[in-house]
TrEMBL record:
PANTHER family: DIGUANYLATE CYCLASE DGCM-RELATED, REGULATORY COMPONENTS OF SENSORY TRANSDUCTION SYSTEM
NCBIfam families cross-referenced by the UniProt entry: GGDEF
UniProt GO MF annotations: diguanylate cyclase activity
Name the UniProt record assigns to this protein: diguanylate cyclase
EC numbers on record: 2.7.7.65
Species the sequence originates in: Pseudoalteromonas xiamenensis
Amino acid sequence: MQEELLNSVIKITKNRDIDSLEYSLISTIQEFIGCDEISVFKDLQVPGELTVELSLSLKLIGKSEFEWGERTLIKNPPPELLSCLQSACIITVQSNDGVERRWVPINLHDKPVGAIAIVSKGLKSSDQVLLNAFCRIFENYLTILNENERDKLTGLLNRQTFESKLKQLIEKQVLKQHRGVWNEDNRKKHQAACSWLAIMDIDHFKRVNDTYGHVCGDEVLLLLAQKMKQYFRATDLLFRFGGEEFVLVFEPTSYEAIKAKMEGFMELIRTTHFPFVKALTVSVGMSPISPYDFPITVLENADKALYYAKDHGRDQLRFYDELVAEDLIQSNQEQSDIDLF
């Protein structure tokens, strides 16, 4: 038993990203404790409101069959979960049929950021000790991984995590396509929407640093990052790529909706008062993400659109596909063919 427990700790702590860490935690709890359902909930830390996400779940659907649940936002979190997040205490509720629901808080820097939810026929005291121990190991390692995944200045995701996060999003798209379980209305909506990648660059940011100093420049970056967190969906991936460059990855959305959303953010930045800087604008290049794209290809496409925007007046949004269709830039595929020959 001791050797098995040691191996389980090794299994949990060998992960190098938070998503894999969650899978390891759930599978380890199921292996040693055995539950009808295990879920990981996250407070997405949206400024000014409590936004809860079901990050991952595992449900027993037969004697030995399990079903993994997909990431989704929780519109109406159960009161026990809210109480757990607000009090940072374990909450336990038992129904008349003996089914126990237990919420265990997960803390980051002494602040609750999520919870592990367990549904079982009642946990023995030894199982409770194991559950708490696994959650504390998860909590400690989560602190390390979170620091490694985040930009130190803005708190956004950093460049090192970009490829793995985008790969996960693309893999989910492929999985949904292969499942083929949508009704006709959902299928039409999916065909009209796709994921998007945007590269955003602060216009003339070097001038800000040169004129007012790097401390002012950092304040500008911090405020911009705060505006991004407040404006975009909690499920959108926001990265700082370094300097004044940011990358945003959006879940499936129609062209019209993503264009309106991005233009709305650009207008917000135009009307925001930044420290020492009277006016600030951003340039944006965007590219759709197909289920079979390589992350580097999507990034290059958006980068081409960004540089077109910067070379033609700045403070504008440009789409890679539109620029190629209008023969304003050369597609990366054509460029590769030319380079090859």
